[in-house]
Write a structure and sequence with these properties.
It contains ten helices and nine strands. It is α+β, with helices and mostly antiparallel strands and 290 residues long. The chain has two domains: 183 residues, no CATH class; 99 residues, no CATH class. The strands form three sheets. The chain has a five-stranded mixed β-sheet, covered by helices on one side. A two-stranded antiparallel sheet has the order 2-3. The chain has a two-stranded antiparallel sheet with strand order 8-9. A hairpin with a 2-residue loop joins strand 4 and strand 5. Helix 1 packs antiparallel against helix 2, helix 4 packs parallel to helix 5 and helix 7 packs parallel to helix 10. The longest helix has 21 residues. The model has no long low-confidence stretch (mean pLDDT 81). This is Reverse transcriptase domain-containing protein. It comes from Linum trigynum. Pfam families: RVT_1.
């Protein structure tokens, strides 16, 4: 089974003492630790209430979102969960999963505040994972949002065991629309259907701009900087079906010539020219060649 955790206000809940302890544990110099402590502790907030700012007050925890230092500090602090999980594995209290017989044990994945924990699908393992989450919360100040967290089971887990685990941990069972880092967690029989959401996002973005009466230069900038970026991350990971990439290229072409992804119009040059290099073309990426 796989537990996908959603943390409540992850940055706002960071415990300062825990963060400072983790910095020292990693061997940072005392002077550096004092600098970081000054950065996170010497801040003031005021609330805009009915158009007027209240008196400033000092927070007791949390790190600032938008601060370039904050993501690094959060990662260092969240590694305390890695220590707890590794300790449980070494004591044979947590099994994790293996992708095949020769793979190492996979117990968790951490990416910023996105947390996924893997384990054997039984009540004992589920209870141990919950204990680790509670201990992690006590140490760091983090709190799991149960309503937004979910659990995913492999196809071989009996329905009775699924129901028992869901009832015990209180997480909802994930559905086919659940994503992790933008990638669907469940795949159907059709790759085209699985990644159809990319087409929908591109169409939604293009339709929002069709009333702006953009020039060809403006459309070129939007295509390169925004719309083509939508499928690029997924395409670095997976080979998309040819008919899907053809559809994407068709949407891009329609938008460039007509301003709408749903409307096809006269092409005033050969189809290859917009996708040709800047020397003689426009330089729009042809997704079929990605």
């Amino acid at each position: 089974m796989m537990l996908k955790l959603d943390m409540k206000k992850a940055y706002d809940m960071v415990d300062w003492e825990c963060l400072e302890t983790m910095l020292k544990k990693y061997g940072f110099d005392d002077r550096w630790c004092r600098w970081v402590s000054s950065c996170i502790r010497t801040i003031n907030f005021s609330i805009l209430f009915n158009g007027e700012a209240t008196e400033e007050f000092n927070p007791s925890r949390g790190i600032r979102q938008g601060d370039p230092l904050s993501p690094f500090l959060f990662i260092l602090m969240s590694n305390s969960l890695t220590f707890l999980i590794d300790k449980a594995v070494s004591q044979n209290q947590l099994k994790g999963i293996r992708l095949n017989a020769r793979c190492p044990i996979l117990t968790h994945c951490l990416f910023a505040d996105d947390t996924v924990i893997f384990g054997k699908a039984d009540l004992q393992e589920a209870e141990k994972i919950l204990d680790l989450i509670r201990e992690y919360g006590t140490i760091t100040g983090q709190e799991v949002n149960i309503n937004k967290s979910s659990v995913f089971f492999s196809a071989n887990v009996p329905e009775v065991d699924k129901a028992a685990i869901i009832g015990h941990i209180g997480f909802a069972s994930s559905n086919c629309h659940t994503k992790y880092l933008g990638v669907p967690m469940e795949w159907g029989n059709s790759k085209k259907e699985t990644f159809q959401f990319l087409i929908q996002r591109m169409e939604k973005m293009g339709e929002a701009w069709k009333s702006l009466l953009l020039s060809h230069g403006g459309k070129e900038v939007l295509l390169k900087a925004v719309i083509q970026a939508i499928p690029s991350y997924i395409m670095y990971l997976f080979n998309l079906p040819v008919n899907l990439t053809k559809k994407m290229d068709s949407l891009l072409t329609n938008f460039f010539w007509s301003g709408s992804m749903q409307k096809s119009t006269m092409h005033w040059c050969r189809k290859e020219i917009p996708c040709a290099p800047k020397a003689g073309g426009i330089g729009i990426l042809k997704l079929q060649r990605f």
